[in-house]
Amino acid sequence: MASSGPFFKRILVVIKQTAFEEYSQLKLRGQAPKALRWQRLESRYHSHKECVESLLTVLKANNVAYSCVNRVELDRQHLSDVDLMIAVGGDGTVLSAAHFLDHGTIPLLGINSDPISEEDKLVKKKKGDERRSHGALCALTALDMKEKVPEVLFGGGKLSTRARIQCVVKSTFSETRLVPALNDLLIANPSPAAVSRFRMGWLKEVDLEPRSPLTDGGGSGLTSAGRLASSLSEPQILPKSTYGTITRFGGKPYDVQNSLNAWSSGMWVCTGTGASAAIASAGGKPMDVRSADLQYLIREHMIENSPNKKEMKDLDNGILKKGEHLHLRWNSQKGRIFIDGSHLTHNLELGDEILIDSNTPPLALYSRWD
């Protein structure tokens, strides 16, 4: 006989910190901007708080154990014994929460706490609050939450997996695996007025005999020190009859193929989920949110003086299939990777290498349902 209790036993509620709260702290220090519309911010703050209180009432009514944490204070220690995460705020809160769900074993439910009303949608002139979240990643809103949260608690709702972006950055003495991105990556110079120079290619894993200076002398392969040195070494040039440029990530050797040098404003890389976001405005292609593929787009690619202009133009925008690996070598003095927006970044230096693919656990995310 099936249990009559809730399907989820331990829930973590991640709560957005509103602009009103952030600016109020700045106001106490005399640092708040003069042009703030305090009445509007306070109204949105109260709408958000009302949604949070309603959610907690629903969880209590269904005898579910829960804990709450502010979005900016979320840490991996909060995930202990949690079997469902609920993000209350908007798309930004969902994205921030998703960064902590590396293994994809804990499902995520997004609730838009201050949705755009139907009345606002009918207004042709932009009189509504343009800062409200679109809620594209939120399955529920403050308007239908009381009815639908219990459905989720007892095993209902529409739960599906979303592909994410794996990004590994190899510097001179380190190799860093960034948190998986649900929407997109922007790889560019920190200054929007500066040129982003990089070499782009595709990686193919190869099988190379270990080089003798790094072996242990017994023919058994690389030593621990040798494997580390090999992984962090500069790309080696082999005869073109064998391979082109060989690089390593995680100790695995890859052949860098079909490389091209790009002078541009940077590059977007997105998932099917993020294909309707910033990359769409930049001219990207529509994608199914269920797709396991990734899409890349070079921004404002400077190809006017290139002898193979058409060929390079065709490579500006493309699809990275599941199992394929994109490679970048950063050729500008400075660079930055923006992960799902502007809040989470990783700095780049001249010579850094970047591996991009979708070989990371997908996110279990609730979507809207009737």
How far apart lie the N and C ends?
28 Å
Could you give the order of strands across the largest sheet?
8-7-20-17-10-13-12-11
Shape from CA axes?
Answer: globular
Strand content: 25-35%
Supply the key terms.
31% strand; alpha+beta; 8 helices; six-stranded antiparallel sheet; globular; 370 residues
Write a compact overview of the structure shown.
This protein has about 375 residues and is α+β, with helices and mostly antiparallel strands.
Question: Can you characterise this structure?
Answer:
The protein is of the alpha+beta class and 370 residues long. Helix content is 20%, strand content 31%. It contains 8 helices and 21 strands. The chain has helices at 19-28, 38-61, 91-98, 118-122, 145-153, 224-232, 278-281, 309-314; strands at 10-15, 65-70, 84-89, 108-112, 140-141, 158-162, 166-170, 175-177, 184-188, 196-205, 236-237, 245-249, 252-264, 267-270, 294-298, 317-320, 325-330, 334-339, 344-349, 353-357, 363-367. It has an 8-stranded antiparallel sheet. The protein has a 6-stranded antiparallel sheet with strand order 16-15-14-9-18-19, with no helix packed on it. Helix 2 runs parallel beside helix 5. Residues 212-220 and 237-241 have low confidence and may be disordered.
